[in-house]
Amino acid sequence: MPDSKSKVVVVMPAYNAAKTLHMTYADLPRASYDLVIVVDDGSSDETSAIARQMGLELFVHNQNYGYGANQKTCYREALKAGADIVVMVHPDYQYDPRLLPEIILPIQEGRADVVLGSRLLGDSPMKQGMPWWKYVANRFLTGLENRVFGLSLAEYHTGYRAFSREALEGVNVEMNSDNFIFDQEIVAQLVQLRSRIAEVPVPTRYFPQASSASFAQSSVYGLSILWLLLRYQLHKWGVVRQRQFESLKQRYAEMPAPDVPPAV
User: Which structural domains are found in the chain, ordered by start?
Assistant: First the structure.
């Protein structure tokens, strides 16, 4: 079992993952987690039925609200369940679930608040099947993000992530998008909080059942990142204040004290 001081909850944001959910779950090292939560974002296949058959903790959206909205439910329910560490594992079997112990180790050892599973560390992702245009776009956007965030990470655009409870509780995820840009918005929030971000190399698989954005979707995503970086930089410079990038603790501290009637 995991360290008794750290309750590890794996969350799976699922959408039409019926063909791969069982494989993903089966490869999770049982000794490394305490609970698995699946959030079905209005799938049209048997995702929910399969999750129930496997006895997983299941939450179902009544329609497809989007990848970001799915993550919001994932993190909300994981924290309600008492998670000390929350790990997002895509149920499409693209990222290797067996690397869960490596993903959570930096947090368990107190060396990081957030861990990203990077496809750009180790072997070339193109050898693993990543389209060349995605690789080029990933490197370009990562370079821009490193400059704006003042970091030197290999990749920001991974779906394999681990968060400490404190990291998730410090950011206002509800202000983020319900779409794919959520992944980068939460990173910007964590950077603003000066969270310690570590990386672990992870191999990936590219096959028909693995979810993959189209060229058009990727283009919209890339433009959304550029807009996000501009907003973050303006906030950092103090030109345009963005409440999205303020920590929840900061916002609570700035709230006026409630009027308390004098004691009689």
Answer: 8-253 (3.90.550.10)
